[in-house]
Amino acid sequence: MKNVKWLVILKNKNLTNYILSKFISELGNGLHGTAIMLFIYSLSKSGIVVSKVLIAYSLPFIILSPFTGIVVDRFKRKKILIVSDLLRVPLVALIPYCTSMYQILILTFLISCISSFYRPAESALLPNIVSKDELLNANSLLTLARSIPNFIIGASLGGIILSTFGSLAVFLFDAFTYLVSAFFILRIKVNETHTREVQHNNILQINLLLQNFKEGLKYIGDNYSLKTIISLMTFIAFLNSGLNTVLVIFSERIIKSSVSYGFFIASNGIGGILGAFLVKNFKIKNSLHIMVPAFAMGGVIDVLFSINRNIVIGMVLYVLSGFINTAMSIVFITFIQNYTKDQLRGRIFSVINALYSFFPIIAMGLAGYIAEVSNVLFIYYFAGFSKIFIYIYFNKSKKRRIKIME
Fold first, then answer.
1. How far is the C-alpha of 311 from the C-alpha of 317, rounded, in Å?
2. Is residue 69 part of a domain?
3. Using H for helix, E for strand and C for coil, what is the string for 2-28?
């Protein structure tokens, strides 16, 4: 795979519009995410309630996954993105008017239902915009477009804006960013060939729905490398979701500073930016072989973070964690985009999204419960040593090492 420079691929106006749409929408999401987590925890002081909101957001990715992937593979992905953005505008705008936690849970669930169509369409569309040689760099640029506004700006300012201007300003701004995102996506010109021979009139037939979903599962099951790397990344997502769930609790109870939560999230974003900058120099095939030891390093970082009580040192550790997780995530997405057929890509990403939601839901519930009845540090120890065990397991035998698909 050739190393294509960023400035070269940014001459692609379609990619530029795509990146701009992500930047502005993620800015709103960053403010939204930090504000709603702090708001919910300030009301309930309960890790279980925080877990419920995160679970409400994750459930649709599991429930709707057999349907979303087929829709993405049968309809124009650009249109799916635009419609998804527009539908989320009124739902997000309603959040500050909620008077109970149940209303927040319902709106969160509905927003997630729409997002469950958006995410596989977003990942599946990119290879239609850029060439294979440009995919790794394009994914690293998109990661920057997410990390800078979401983690650096949004996470750092979310709590400040919430306390200064109130929840209404935060969520109305987030709703506005979806409108701007839809505008930039509308400007993209793309030839989507995967829909040429598709008949839409029978898409809701249950038998056909299951058959098409099974095609995606079979495609994954028949490819050792694909199956192995998806399983590995799903387990890592399981562990990291547990950590993300209790980070706000760790900040309050262990570090004894609610401000540190935003700093840790922002530090994670800085690490993500560094990872996105450097991953563009990787060779995609060779990079697969460093994923397992990289996550073992992440495990060591998790353990060190759990025994640390200094905010600055914690921020440094989160920079390193963000670097590792982001770099490996970019490699993973690029690998999937490169080695899956266009007409199946939506289904593959919907399966991945379902796995990334189902197992993390279990992690969220367990983490919230453990943090409530026991010591939150146990969660960090478990995640850290599990990642280290992955390294030992995959390197014990050559047969378990990830093979490269030609």
1. 10
2. yes
3. CCCCHHHHCCCHHHHHHHHHHHHHHHH
Most confidently predicted of 88-92, 215-219, 291-295: 88-92
Residue 210 one-letter amino acid:
L
Q: Pick from 388, 380, 231, 232: which is nearest to 298 by CA?
A: 388
> Is 198 within a domain?
no
DSSP states along 57-113: HHHHHHHSHHHHHHHHHHS-HHHHHHHHHHHHHHHHHHGGG--SHHHHHHHHHHHHH
pLDDT at 45: 65
Q: Has residue 228 got a pLDDT over 50?
A: yes
- Does residue 157 carry a pLDDT above 70? no
Mean pLDDT of the chain: 81
Q: What's the total number of domains in the chain?
A: 1
Statement: residue 151 has pLDDT above 70: no
Residue 260 forms part of a structural domain: yes
Number of Cβ within 10 Å of residue 377's Cβ equals: 18
C-alpha dihedral (359, 362, 364, 366), degrees to nearest 10: -140
CATH for 332: 1.20.1250.20
Q: Which residue has the tokens 């640390």?
A: 308
* Predicted confidence (pLDDT) at residue 285 exceeds the cutoff of 60: no
Tell me, yes or no, whether 388 lies in a domain.
Answer: yes
Instruction: State the residue range of the domain holding 237.
Output: 6-191+203-400
